[in-house]
């Protein structure tokens, strides 16, 4: 995907500091979180059913202070690596794509903050580790990522290419859209009111974020290159609950959706370029 370089000062970026702890202390996980945690579960013999049952349930913690904010400029942070440059370019494109949508809907828009870190850090949702994968923290509206995740996508999951990496950022941005529109809060309330449906509701929320990622791509289809669609489908297929758990977890315990569901959601967004189409996923 031929994204334009971001303009320095136009995006929110800060480097995450140290202080990361074990995943049990931390954030609700997004697209990447389930990938790394479940891969680790399968490699090291942890029961994936237990992990799926507890993920995405930790809420923003009051009193958390994000540590390690530096005085670096966004250009200095984004120039650190090819992965970060790509992430910053994607963030700028996502901001530019979603801001008019919010203006048209009469909803206040705020840019999220990209927070790259290495190894571990703290967020408004608690401690984070690289093994958790990328996630969105609604408390501080940050998209957290240790870019070594992309190497894992490439080597262990077979999800290669720049569009696969953009999909990760766009999915987490989708969770930001859900927060700003109030959808995330409504779904969380429904989960609390009906715990038996919590996993099913989590799946719908994740699939809508996939659809939103597709909408971003669909609205920028003039930048799409040959092979991008296939890269996106491969990535969505690789991180489906059924694929990651290799049949070891009951579908009733899925939290992000099957490979087929994730591919369908991404495809819906890409082909329509219409965020209202993604509402059908939440409505069921």
UniProtKB/TrEMBL annotation:
One of its GO terms (cellular component) is membrane. One of its GO terms (biological process) is proteolysis. Keywords: Hydrolase, Membrane, Metalloprotease, Protease, Transmembrane, Transmembrane helix. The keyword Transmembrane applies. It is a single-pass membrane protein. It is found in: Membrane. Its main location: membrane. The chain crosses the membrane at residues 27-46. GO terms for molecular function: metallopeptidase activity. InterPro entries: Uncharacterised_pept_Zn_put. PANTHER family: INNER MEMBRANE PROTEIN (PTHR30168:SF0), PUTATIVE MEMBRANE PROTEIN YPFJ (PTHR30168). This is Zinc metalloprotease.
